[in-house]
Amino acid sequence: MDLSRRDRKVLWTKAGDRCTYNFDGETCNTELVKVDNGKYVILGEECHIVGEKPKAARYLEAYPQRETYYNAILMCGVHHTIIDGNPDVYTIEVLHAMKDRHEATIQLAVQNNTLQPLTIKDSEFLTIVEKAQRAVGMKINRPAQLSNVKSELRVGNVQEAIGFSTNQGLTAIAISCSCKQSFSVAFVGTPPESAICPYCGRKHRLHR
Fold it and tell me: For the chain, what is the mean pLDDT?
């Protein structure tokens, strides 16, 4: 979709980076941003509620809000295909109601601190910036759990360099497991109730 930068931020934030699909008792809620081998992988697809072109699902000829947040819904690839393949079932009204329910669920989860955190593990990130006013190596502004993660920022001719940035609280914990291995984890936002040992899989309850 040809969304403005602002509308794209609103769409992904209000959806909680998760698939919006919820219909007839089925809820997807798949996380749409993953980390694989140190790289962010985007699994989400920005979908039109009112179709983009003639012959597209749910197309209306005169529709000035076509490329706006109001007409966008965030889906995984599977459910994008499903809603566009069955426009008689997934009507404009059905998709707007689906979007409203999902966003309300995400908002409630954030308020109650029950939204599952982004998990990043066994990854290395390298950011190289030349000739800039400001450079940030890694920025996370949602609850997250980091384990065995390395972030390196290399700069040249940069006025301000920030290795790691977050608007959440940052907590780092070192844990010794009964399997005689030690590991450390870091949490952005409120730490969860437990952490899993990467060597043996034992769950360790965390003291808050």
Answer: 86
